[in-house]
Write a structure and sequence with these properties.
Elements lengths: L1 H9 E7 L3 E3 L13 H13 L5 H14 L4 H10 L2 H15 L4 H15 L4 H29 L6 E3 L4 H7 L1 E3 L9 E7 L2 E8 L2 E8 L3 E9 H4 L4 H4 L1 E2 L2 E2 L16 E8 L2 H7 L1 H10 L9 E3 L13 E2 L2 E2 L10 H10 L10 H4 L4 H27 L3 H8 L21 E5 L1
Parallel strand pairs: 11-15
Antiparallel strand pairs: 2-3, 4-5, 4-12, 5-6, 6-7, 7-8, 8-11, 9-10, 13-14
Amino acid sequence: MRIVRAVVCGFVVALIPFSMVLLATAEEPPTGEPATESEAADAEALVRQLDDNQFARREEASRAIERLGLPTIAALSRVAERGSVEASRRAFQLLERFANSADVALRGAARTALETISVGASSAAAERAKDLLATIAGRGEDAAQQQAQQDRPRAGGRFPFLELLPQLEQRGGVLLRGGVPGVNSRTVVRNNDSLQIVVTENDRKVSITEDPTNGITVEVTEPQADAQADDPAENARADGQENAAVQDAGQNDAEPASTITRRYVAKDAAELEANHPEAFELYQRYAAQNEVAAPLLPEGLFPRDLFPEDFFQGGQLGEGFFPPGFDEEFLQRFRDGLPLELGEPEDWPRLFEQEPGELQQQLRERMQQRMQQLQRRFKELQRPTPGQRQQQDQPPEGQQRDDPPKVEQEVVDRQDVIDV
């Protein structure tokens, strides 16, 4: 369904059209001034929130603690040593970040806190603190200054999404959209060493599959009238052998199929160029530029058990998931809102350091809310409007109420497939 493919290209890219750009908030660095009573109270409340039941509130607390800085050190030290597993993990992450800060007072306080924990009563916390101190010592002051330079807000407060690519590429995933002019939609699915690209260009659909075992397969589907402009005899060759078109059984020659698909197969790009130059041109146009097309999403990022069975197909939205008539405006809002399920942009680097299983658990609450919104919208669309109900109660023009309904004959398009 056309509408689904349009959503996929953004869904994800969503997940990034994210426009390849993330917003970051330019904040003032923490100062070395003593904490006021108000700041100390805020710090205590925020650190307690690190153990909140909701992932969004825990993330909010982490961001607020980073902004507050020095006044939170004492509370973070206490939670890192004696807090729950989740709160302790977050506290250590914040202390490590502070220990590499460009602010001298903040950096010194965080390292002192880690040294105190390293000789404390909790053996697990002490070992963690020792590991962090050893890591910090190994980096040296030059590394600390480099980290401070990375944390400094860039011009305009913007961070390119490409800065996250090294972390994302290590996990593999789905490449959601490219940037080829004249293309209505483009979907790329990467699975280990295999690559599948589906491009819609007006009335033509191009599918390119490449993997080490089967080589390269290019399929071009276009209207029958356009396909007849080519010589079938020239397009139906594979390894020098003539192949007949695969016809649907019982086809009437006077009634041509609406579309025709030509399939080109080669073991590699060189063979494709030699035997099928027209297919090689498409391969070069759509597949060769894949490396710089768009960011990758981590494999297993979205918990699939939250979605209907046909929601995902080959890493993308399944055909038929969105019913006909599903309004574009709502889809646009849903698509554009998906990146927000990952939290605030400045938290993405830390978020992707986690394991996919932990990501699934943390995303579950927000994704469930999104699916509930979709389900409510589905029910709204299924309810007939007052005008539709009135029309259903009245018989069609020229037909008595007791007359049997007239059934219009449905014409089903056929499709020819030619192996070349």
